[in-house]
Amino acid sequence: MAKFSSLYICCSLIFSIQLLFLSLQTHGAAVDDVCRQTVDPPFCQQCFNIDPRSATAASPMLGEIAVQWAAYYGGNTKIDMHEAMMRAADPAVKNQYSRCIDLYQTALEHFQAAPGELSSKAWAVLRKNAESIRAGVDACEAVFNHNAPAEVANTDRLVGIFADALAIIARSFGG
User: Whole-model pTM?
Assistant: First the structure.
């Protein structure tokens, strides 16, 4: 009886370790699966590598990570654009910054709503809002005739890729 009990415990332990490994492997692959579907997979991977949780996160957690970092960088860029607008002497440049600030404000409002959409599994709303964020980022870039200042262009790219990832995650759950 003791041999059977030891064998059972040993097999259970091996099975548990295999399940744990498979779980970690599956979650680690989530970032790969999401990024592979974006317009720039290597940049997407680079963006998610900002946060070490991405390495083992399942898709919903990747959504939370995308929201947190995009809102952080988007908020800082909005502040930078406001400061640049205040320094600009040319009224046309001031107008460009003002339009982008409005677009970023809308994007940030969508990012503020996203955690609730993730937790309530409102996948269709999340996808629609993520696509709206992407459209706003692209519109901001277009305001500058695709020659945006560095503080705008770099964040446009980062916020855009996180918005794409968020839309992909929402679609994967039926959104």
Answer: 0.80
